[in-house]
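Extended Data, panel c. Modelled sequence:
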Amino acid sequence: MAFFNISKFAKLGFLAAGLAFSATVSPAISASESEKKDAANALKVTIDRAKVVRIAAPADTIIVGNPSIVDATIQDARTIVLTGRNFGVTNLIILDSDGEAIVDETIVVKGHETNTVRVYRQSVRETLTCSPVCEATLSVGDDVDRFAAMQDQIIKRNGIAESAADNE
């Protein structure tokens, strides 16, 4: 067993290093608090759901930070429809005809939790929607093979329905 004698100078060096480290970490903590406030005040949208947003002034241009997370459509000059595409956080900026920002919001897209059950078998996840009978549903993050098989079934079913409608 070895014992080390740390001199006063070494202790002061550790203290100085610790103070320097805390000084560099403090701004990160502040930024984190700011991000928490943004998330708390963010407009929340559920994946695969549309949300109608009314704005105070007529919109001319919509800018979405990450369109793979949320889709925004101008319904009319004062009505925007947001559709959650994928889990995540992005931002939405709406400009008027003069190019002035009338909306600058953080958007959080979350999963639908109501009547939803996730089944984990080791690293494989499957999502079920239960109302009241549980049936498999597509959810980002589910097992790739199950997701692809279900997606294929949905595409085929929709194709059958579309062809039946075309024949009427």
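Strands lie at 43-46, 50-54, 61-64, 70-76, 79-84, 88-95, 101-110, 116-121, 124-130, 134-137. This feature is highlighted in the accompanying rendering.
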